[in-house]
Amino acid sequence: MTIVISKSIVYREIPTGLPIPDQHFQVVSTELDLDDLALEHGDFVTKTLYLSVDPYQRSKMREPSIESYNSAYELNKIMSGGAISQVIQSNNPTFRVGDYVTGGSARWEEYSVIRRAQASQFRNTTDRIHQVGLPLRHWLNVLGGTGLTAYVGFRLFGDIRPGKTIYISGAAGATGYVIAQIAKIKGLRVIGSTGDDAKVLFLMETAGIDAAFNYKKISVDEALSEYAPDGIDFFFDNVGGETLEATINHANTHARFILCGAISGYNQSDEERYGVKNLFKVVSKRLDIKGFLVSEAAPPFIEDFHREVVGWVKSGELVVSDSVVEGIENTPKALVDMLQGKNLGKQLVKVAEEDP
Question: Cα–Cα distance between 156 and 53 in angstroms, integer?
């Protein structure tokens, strides 16, 4: 017998505000005999290496009756999300022992038995990882869904002339720090906001954008008056609420907005969320405002994404940043910290070392 103890994170209670790790989640330990799994054809077993922690996961922690673009998490079930894992046993020719596997619906557990019916939810990324030769965790960051969201969001602005001004809210978060650098590479004047002085320093000195400010110390309205006296041409929004309202006031005629998220309201009820009051200016300024889901918008840009982003990372034009905590039992706290803006760049959880 080869016995392992596999810890998992179970979703126990629907939060009404910011989740509380010890209340809304439970760490459960399960004894697993790796020699007695009775794998049928098409089944395989993975060891989780890294978990991705993302804002959308908070939106799934809701009443199942509330409709949205994603399904609600089920109570008393193991949480799920993006992950990169390594195959340790297999009865599936597509996934060999030692291969790297990525997927957006991986369970938050140290070891996973993937049955044939679930196998299509996962991708064997081994060859691509070896070909590119960059650190493994980058595949949940700039080379994965996070980087793709930033890249696709930027491309959705359409034709962009260098020298124009873009403002990015949540600019030091997982998506924000990537699109901030892409915009700079493409020749735009880049302004970013964040809620921490150290992140302002990162955006200015490491990401190399033109202006950054701490919205907790200076309002968006004041900052844009100072840093964008000629107005905003493009806006990539991760925050929503009052930030969106202030940016509408500073937008130039025919400015283009891409709305990626609204993290300012993720822990609030509909009644508590800030209501934007100046929407008529969308009409008077003829603003182009577009929301998007990367799963729908990405296909035309996938090839360009892989070519350009890998090149930028390898050349050093695009700096990769992440906040990594260790131990799967710390995943709930990592999620809550990310929702409070404590991460710089992508929030990850390192679960285990890869096998040689």
Answer: 25
Claim to verify: residue 9 and residue 52 sit in the same structural domain = yes
Q: How far is CA 177 from CA 149, 173, 193, 343, in A?
A: 12, 6, 10, 11
What range does the domain containing 269 cover? 145-301
String of b and e for 164-183 (b: at least 16 CB within 10 Å)?
Answer: bbbbbbbbbbbbbbbbbbbb
Do 64 and 50 fall within a single domain?
Answer: yes
- Whether 150 is covered by a domain: the verdict is yes
Q: How far apart are CA 257 and CA 154, in angstroms?
A: 10
Q: Which residues pair with 111 in a beta bridge?
A: 47
| Cβ count within 10 A of residue 226 | 12
Question: Across the chain, which distance is largest between two alpha carbons, in Å?
Answer: 71
Does 1 score more than 80 pLDDT?
Answer: no
pLDDT tens figures, 302-325: 999 999 999 999 999 999 999 999
Q: Does residue 308 fall inside a structural domain?
A: no
Q: Quote the percentage of the chain above a pLDDT of 90.
A: 92
The DSSP result for 262-320, as a single string, is -GGGTTS-TTTSPPP--THHHHHTT-EEEE--HHHH-GGGHHHHHHHHHHHHHHTSS--
- Do 197 and 231 share a domain, yes or no? yes
Q: Which residue in the block uniquely carries the two structure tokens 């505000």?
A: 17
The string of pLDDT tens digits covering residues 167-216 is 999 999 999 999 999 999 999 999 999 999 999 999 999 999 999 999 99
**Residue 316 included in any domain:** no
- 99 inside domain: yes
